[in-house]
Amino acid sequence: MQAGRPGRLAPTARIPLGERNGMTHGSEQTGGAEQTKVAPRGDLLRVETRESRPGVLVLSPRGEVDVSSADVLRDAARGALAASPRCLVVNLTGLTFCGSTGLVVLMDACRDAETAGVRFCTAGGQAIVRRVLEITQLGPVLRHRDSLDDALQELDGEEGPEQPPAVAQ
């Protein structure tokens, strides 16, 4: 520890992996140019894909989305979009954690869907996941709805990506 600064590590200190905070899930700089690589952890996340009605795919991730499991959700979203659905809904109800990497995956999926002309939204979620969407103000960006039923009902009445309102002349 540095003198005069209790609780702070010296800039060149190295913390053995076993002694790191359990919340650390990403690549980190540990004082020098050395980085810890994160091994993919597909066991943290499973994603079910189903067609709820013709042309409407629902992705239902279950578990944690962080840097070590994000590729599972990313691959599922890409696979769903490759099927050219009319709508894609990501049902967040089964998520117990969604870190910043998970939010990036959701934003990328939203952007990719809109580029492909596919309606996109997220739905549901436990309190901790909904709170992250609220804090980051990504709920409106992802067109988040309170429940899967709300999302499906809204998407059923719409065609193609959301269009801005027409300007009256």
Structure commentary:
With 169 residues, the protein is α/β, with parallel strands linked by helices. It contains four helices and five strands; from the N terminus they run ββαββαβαα. Strands 1, 2, 3, 4 and 5 form a five-stranded mixed β-sheet that branches. Helix 1 runs parallel beside helix 2. The longest helix is centred in the middle third of the chain and has 16 residues.
Task: Describe the protein's topology.
Blueprint: E1 45-53, E2 56-65, H1 70-82, E3 87-91, E4 95-98, H2 100-115, E5 119-123, H3 127-136, H4 148-156
Parallel strand pairs: 2-3, 2-4, 3-5
Antiparallel strand pairs: 1-2
Helix pairs in contact: 1-2
Label the overall shape.
globular
Structural class: alpha/beta
Share in β-strands: 15-25%
Task: Report the end-to-end length measured between terminal Cα atoms.
Answer: 68 Å
Helix content: 25-40%
Radius of gyration: 20 Å
User: What's the assembly state of these chains?
Assistant: single chain
Annotation, overall tally of beta strands = 5
Give average pLDDT, whole number.
79
Poorly predicted regions are: 1-33, 160-169
- The helix tally amounts to 4
**CATH homologous superfamily assignment of the domain at 42-156:** STAS domain
CATH topology of the domain at 42-156: Transcription Regulator spoIIAA
CATH C-level label of the domain at 42-156? Alpha Beta
Biggest sheet layout: 5 strands, mixed
Topology as a string of helices (H) and strands (E): EEHEEHEHH
**CATH-defined architecture of the domain at 42-156:** 2-Layer Sandwich
